[in-house]
Amino acid sequence: MSEQVWIAGVGMTRFARHDGRGVPDLAAEAVREALADAGLERRHVEAAFFGNTTQGALQGQLMVGGQIALRGMGFERIPMYNVENACATGAAALHLAADQVRAGAVDIALAVGSEKMNVADRDRTMAVFEGAYDVSDPAGLTASLTALGGEIDDAHAGRRSVFMDIYAAMARAHMRRFGTTQRQFAAVSAKNHRHSVHNPRAQHRKDFTVDEVLAARALSFPLTVPMCAPVTDGAAAVVVCGQRGLRRLVGRGRSVRVLANVAGTGVVRAQDAWEQHISGLLAGRAYERAGVGPQDIDVAELHDATAFGEIQQSELLGLCEPGAGGAAAEAGETALGGRIPVNPSGGLEAKGHPLGATGLAQVYELVQQLRGEAGVRQVSGARVALAENSGGFYGGEEAVAAITVLGA
Question: Which residue among 18, 44, 87, 95 is the active-site one?
Answer without folding.
Answer: 87
